[in-house]
Specification:
CATH topology of the largest domain: Protein Transport Mog1p, Chain A
Number of helices: 14
Largest sheet: 7 strands, antiparallel
Strand content: 25-35%
Helix content: 40-55%
CATH class of the largest domain: Alpha Beta
CATH superfamily of the largest domain: Mog1/PsbP, alpha/beta/alpha sandwich
Radius of gyration: 44 Å
Oligomer: single chain
Distance between the termini: 36 Å
Number of strands: 22
Length: about 525
């Protein structure tokens, strides 16, 4: 694929062109006008009724600004159409300017208009008759209102801050309320009974909540100590299971203990579901019964020292693991919030594009801000500064012999490809015999070759170009649509071509980037400003 691209690129730069007949007539209403005034450029062509004609579009033709593009005037005559396209042009500075040759596509075949030189005259100012006034003080321009998305990001940042603060509050509140890891179920039950009394639920009149928590303490103790599903069982199911467990585990529980437990559980059921309201002395009696039942059940359990020690170790290990996970989760949340805050800060102060290009990365941004190199390429040499060293191409393997036969020497160097984010091509050729090189024909050949390669909607503009050492050449630039075979989509590319002829040879620099790539535009400007041409030694 790369070899095909190189061959196509060279063909674009070859001096062989395709002859064409004159199809476009170019006229202008005046060649001299005061700067700022409008001049009218007219393009006329005649085609058959089946032909498709595309006139050039753009905001600038060379260095002239397009003020207005008028509708195409169509006149039918027999089987032909006479098409007339009119443009209003101007320039805001005095001087002589050239309207470049414009590209008109007729059935996708390019035809060029004539270039015309126009002069914009200065406006004479009579300072004698014109009254003079003092310079007015500087007035602060009203600041433009920020974009809506900035306020949206600030709002999201504030909401995220509130949500994060609420999360930390709930997290630390939960940690404070987290139960202490007890060595045995009896210690846990006694501690919870003491805590229940400290809540003063009876004094507050919350009898239902008191009985609910009291019976939950007893059920939890029975479930942990005897390993039966006490929390999920009804009162009768729990008493029956406790009796069976007592027999199976040989527990020495008296009938009185079981009866007391059953009585308190039934009293609690009445309070919770039948809205019963026991007296204060009954409540105190029920609390003592539960405390006594818990103590007697614990005393009736056979001692299993090894199992108890193992359970304690496992319980402590799980507690430590849970605390460690909580610390990691909290630290992760804090770090994430800090990063999010930094992101919002840079988006508000620098803009979303800066954040995206800096954090996510941008291919041409890395090239633009990287270390550049300055080298000379070809004979005669072309000195140019590029973000990467250009690689030499093997011309003998890429071009046919009949193409190389008129050449005394041909050297090509490149980096990237025509459809990449950034592409640069430098070439220097010498001919054996004196050869007249017509830049316009070269560019016409370029367009035809590009179209054969699949390019569409090619727009071409051109103007003179002077290097820092005074060598004059041609600068061509514009846009085209190329097909990305991998993504199966068309990409709009911006290109620039520099052509020079000296020492019976042709020197050229090709550059292309994706359109509207600001970093790519910086790269192109820096490369073009660095171009220097050497003489053949």
């Amino acid at each position: 694929m790369k070899r095909k691209i190189v061959i196509i690129t060279f063909l674009l730069l070859s001096v062989v062109s395709f002859a064409q007949q004159k199809r476009v007539k170019t006229t202008i209403d005046t060649t001299k006008v005061k700067f700022g005034y409008q001049i009218n450029l007219t393009l006329k062509t005649t085609t058959d009724t089946l032909s498709k004609v595309i006139f050039p579009k753009g905001n600038y033709f060379g260095r002239l600004e397009v003020l207005e593009t008028y509708p195409t005037d169509t006149v039918k005559e027999g089987f032909n159409y006479h098409l007339t396209k009119k443009y209003g042009l101007t320039q805001w500075d005095s001087g002589k300017y050239t309207i470049p040759r414009l590209n008109i596509l007729i059935n996708n075949k390019p035809f060029l208009s004539d270039s015309i030189q126009v002069e914009f005259l200065n406006v004479a100012v009579d300072t004698v008759k014109q009254p003079m006034h003092d310079i007015k003080n500087v007035i602060q321009a009203p600041k433009e209102s920020s974009s809506w998305w900035i306020y949206l990001l600030i709002l999201l940042g504030v909401l995220a801050l509130i949500a994060f603060g609420y999360y930390l509050y709930k997290k630390f509140k939960k940690i404070k309320k987290e139960e202490i890891v007890f060595a045995t179920p009896i210690e846990k039950a006694n501690a919870h009974l003491k805590n229940l009394e400290l809540k003063n639920l009876i004094q507050k009149g919350e009898i239902k909540a008191y009985y609910s928590e009291l019976t939950d303490i007893a059920r939890t103790f029975i479930e942990e100590a005897i390993k039966i599903p006490a929390l999920e069982s009804t009162t009768s199911e729990l008493v029956d299971a406790l009796k069976n467990s007592t027999l199976n585990k040989k527990l020495s529980l008296s009938k009185e203990t079981l009866d007391n437990l059953e009585a308190v559980l039934k009293q609690a059921d009445l309070v919770k579901f039948a809205k019963s309201k026991p007296q204060e002395f009954e409540i105190e009696s029920d609390r003592k019964k539960i405390a006594s039942c818990i103590t007697k059940i614990n005393q009736s359990i056979p001692e299993e020292i090894d199992d108890l020690k193992l359970n304690q170790e496992l319980l402590l290990k799980k507690y430590q693991q849970r605390k460690r996970k909580q610390k990691i989760a909290t630290a992760g949340m804090i770090v994430s919030f800090i990063l999010f805050g930094v992101f919002i800060f840079f988006v508000v102060t620098k803009g979303i594009t800066f954040v995206k290009d800096t954090i996510i990365g941008h291919p041409t941004k890395e090239l633009a801000e990287g270390e550049w190199v300055t080298s000379e390429y070809g004979i005669p040499p072309i000195k140019v500064e590029t973000p990467k060293v250009l690689k030499r191409m093997d011309v003998s393997n890429l071009l046919p012999k009949d193409t190389l036969s008129p050449l005394l020497d041909m050297q090509m160097f490149s980096y990237g490809g025509i459809m990449d984010n950034f592409y640069v091509f430098v070439s220097s050729a010498q001919y054996k015999e004196n050869t007249e090189i017509d830049f316009n024909k070269v560019l016409e050949g370029n367009i035809v070759t590009w179209e054969k390669a699949g390019a569409q909607n090619i727009l071409l503009k051109q103007e003179k170009f002077d290097t820092k050492k005074g060598v004059t050449g041609l600068r061509a630039y514009g846009t085209m649509m190329v097909l990305n075979n991998i993504k199966k989509e068309s990409i709009k590319m911006y290109y620039e071509i520099l052509l020079f002829k000296q020492d019976n040879g042709l020197q050229q620099v090709h550059l292309s980037i994706k359109e509207n790539d600001k970093y790519g535009e910086e790269i192109i400007d820096r490369i073009i400003n660095s171009v220097e041409l050497g003489k053949l030694k």
